[in-house]
Amino acid sequence: PPKYERFIRPSGLRMKKAHVTHPELQTTFSLDIIGVKKNPQSSLYTSLGVITKGTVIEVNVSELGLVTPAGKVVWGKYAQVTNNPENDGCINAVLLV
């Protein structure tokens, strides 16, 4: 949230979507980002929600229609960022299965 940020990032760097690749299907989807689970660079980045390469983000997979063995629809899944978003202006990630 902007309130907690020491440096307000430009709105161009605020990402709402990520290009997430499903490793088994070998297909890529544009999914909504729910939040940052863990940023390995620093714990401060995790709490600020900064996304860098290697960050584990939570993405909304409800439109993929994934179902648990119990038959519930999965809507949040973790994905790891594979590119450097500040260089590319987009987020590419791999779904962690």
What is the C-alpha radius of gyration, as a whole number of Å? 14 Å
Number of helices: 2
* Unreliable runs: none
By DSSP, the count of extended strands is 5
How do the helices and strands follow one another from N- to C-terminus?
EEHEEHE
The share of residues in helices is 10-25%
Structural class, from helix and strand content? Answer: mainly beta
Mean pLDDT: 79
Give a short account of the largest sheet. 5 strands, mixed, barrel
Strand content: 25-35%
Using brief descriptors, characterize the structure shown:
mainly beta; globular; single chain; about 35% strand; about 10% helix; about 100 residues; five-stranded mixed barrel
Structure description:
By secondary structure, the chain is mainly β. The chain is built from two helices and five strands, in the order ββαββαβ. It has helices at about 45-50, 85-90, and strands at about 15-20, 25-40, 55-60, 75-80, 90-95. It has a five-stranded mixed barrel with strand order 1-2-3-4-5. The longest helix is centred in the middle third of the chain and has 6 residues, at about 45-50. The chain is globular and about 35 Å long. The mean pLDDT is about 80.
